[in-house]
Amino acid sequence: MPRRPRQRAESGVYHVVLRGVNRDAVFLEDEDFERFLSALRAVRDATGCRVLAYCLMTNHVHLVLRTTDEPVGLVLKRLGIRYAGWFNRKYGRVGHFFQDRFVSRPVEDDAYLLTVLRYVWNNPVKAGMCERAEDYRWSSRRFLEQDAGGRPVDGEELRRLVPARVLAEIADPAPERIASVAEPAIGRPLRHTDAEVVSLFRTASGVGDPREFRLLDPIRQRTAISELRTRSVSYDQIARVTGLSASTVKRRHASSVGRTRPEDAGLGSTGWGG
């Protein structure tokens, strides 16, 4: 079936959701979050769009954007190419990175904008990652009370659209006031069963048990560990299937960063069309 055309926001404001393919993690360590924000800042400056809010979760991203001359599809394509390509090179990964088309919902009135902002900022609280939205490191919520310090959020634009008094009221709502926002289910990163991890391990490493894995050369071991991490497999689970200690798995994963095969350099697909 042909894809439905995207709804265009007369206001230029959109709530955007980017999800990892198969609900895989899109951020594994602090450097990944920082790199995404750097890419977002570069795209914002290149396109003239305004970032009203953001929240980076483990396997998905929420953005509230106001576009200007460049359509939201092109803005997100620029962002996806920048970040997906970098992530795939870093972890020696190939193939689609983001799932299907990104989700973009037009925000056409003030009431819905307030609902979206409240929902985006409180995503980490709802997921049990923090008690207060302002404490979450990878959200723009905390910059309501402090300078953004180079983060790609346009506070002045947000305050132009929403009075400071109203922002203060919605920034720390009671739980019952956190309205749901219509969007496809995202969920937390997959929690793989041990049987699933064994299957992923065999595919990634090409061997069937810990004894054979320990006979592999270090580069193949690091590549397999990195592949499992990008599939949201925990260090403890990787340790169980490889026969290594969790601390050794972490060290080998860390040493794999930047060790990309020359033939994979530059490979990386966002996974979406416009």
Structural summary, described in words:
With 274 residues, this protein is of the alpha+beta class. The chain has two domains: 13-177, 2-Layer Sandwich (Alpha-Beta Plaits), CATH 3.30.70; 194-264. The chain is 43% helix and 9% strand. It contains eleven helices and four strands, in the order βαββαβααααααααα. It has helices at residues 30-47, 72-91, 110-121, 123-126, 155-161, 164-171, 194-205, 210-214, 218-230, 235-242, 246-256; strands spanning 13-19, 50-56, 60-66, 103-106. Strands 2-3-1-4 form a four-stranded antiparallel sheet. A hairpin with a 3-residue loop joins strand 2 (50-56) and strand 3. Helix 9 packs across helix 11. The model is unreliable at 175-179, 182-189 and 257-269 (pLDDT under 50).
Task: Please summarize what this structure is.
The protein is of the alpha+beta class and 274 residues long. The chain contains eleven helices and four strands; from the N terminus they run βαββαβααααααααα.
Notable characteristics:
single chain, 274 residues, alpha+beta, Alpha-Beta Plaits, 2 domains, four-stranded antiparallel beta sheet, 9% strand, elongated
